[in-house]
Amino acid sequence: MSYHNSIHPTITLQNASYYSSLGGAVRGAPQSSFMIPNRKRVPQSIYHPNDKWRAQTGRLTVHPPIAIDFKGYSRQGMKMSEIYARGSYALSQMMEGADDRVLARTGLKRITLHIRWPGYDSYDHCKWIRSIELNTSSGPITRAELAAAVSQNFYRYFDVIASTPVMDWYLGPKGITFDKLVLVSIINVFEDAWQADVAVDF
To answer: So which domain of life are we looking at (predicted)?
Structure first.
């Protein structure tokens, strides 16, 4: 069963993208990987620990990226506002692999989400590091539940940094609003540290 959404045109085989470098997505993957022309990836900095010893001995990118897509639309992402507003049943109908227990075999009990929005990551009050528990009342967290937790964190992040002006990628009523954010994937950048690969519909 595929989910139809009017903002995503049907993909034919000859127009399908086979771009698979999700590990490099946070660093700024080619913009042409999106079917929507005004959708652009956010050029985030990658989390790296300040502790020199940990930085040298820690494990880098242990787990594969977790893609977030509408059913039938590979590597296009989903609007965070859609994910935030929908319940688990609706997401299971809309999202590709929504019920997959994406981190069940990793042995992890929680992950740490780092939001490093360009221009804001240098302000102490704009640093956002939050734990996400991976064991829920129904078992290991699903793709849909993880996407919802990440979207909720971005929604709250907007409240925290709303009054902090920056030159580019400005967040707020006069800049980029939450409803323009697209969650493309969730990427393991260092040990238990994860970041969201985010795009913006301008």
So the answer is: Eukaryota
Has residue 189 been placed in a domain?
yes
pLDDT of residue 194: 96
- The pair phi, psi for residue 39, each rounded to 5°, is -95, 125
Tell me the C-alpha distance between 33 and 41, whole Å: 10
Name the pTM for this structure: 0.82
Evaluate whether 99 touches 91 at the Cβ level (below 8 Å): no
pLDDT along the chain (202 residues), means of 10: 44 36 43 83 89 68 91 95 95 96 93 94 88 94 98 94 82 91 96 95 94
CA distance between the termini of the chain? 30
55-61 long-range contacts, Cβ below 8 Å, gap at least 24?
58/190, 58/191, 59/190, 59/191, 60/189, 60/190, 61/23, 61/187, 61/188, 61/189, 61/190
Domain coverage including residue 187 = 59-201
**Structural domain tally of the chain?**
1
Strands of 30-140 (E only): list them: 39-41, 66-67, 78-79, 110-115, 128-133, 135-136, 139-140
Element (H, E) at 198: strand 193-201
| Strand, coil or helix: 156 | helix
Work out whether strand 181-190 and strand 78-79 pair parallel, antiparallel, or are unpaired.
Answer: antiparallel
Burial 25-38 (b: 16+ CB within 10 A, else e): bbeebeeebbbeee
pLDDT score at 12:
38
Return the pLDDT at 54: 67
